[in-house]
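ok so for the tutorial part 2 we go from a plain amino acid sequence to predicted structure tokens. step 1 is just haveing the sequence, like this:
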Amino acid sequence: MKTATTILCMALPLLASAEMCNVFNNDGPVHCRSSPKFSAKSVTTIGDGDGWDFSCYKSGDCYEGVCSWDYNWELKCYINGYYTSDQCNSSNVTSSLTISGSETDKL
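step 2 — the prediction. this is what the tokens look like for a chain of 107 residues:
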């Protein structure tokens, strides 16, 4: 199911619109990681104040009480929601899908 969830998250930009969000709350670049964990490999860094499209999120490691990680399909990586602007919230980005009658964990 994890693979299907990852594939769906990456395909979501084709199904739903992405939300432009700014990266902030940091003194420098923020790591965009391969999975929603602080121990995951850093795919790239995004500069403080830079805007990127995020189309879905997945629950993961928490920071300052924020456990959602916003996914950028172009970079194929996650940033903890603490570091993204308010446009990236559960009302604007996809959080879960139903697959074969069962709900996946948050994308």
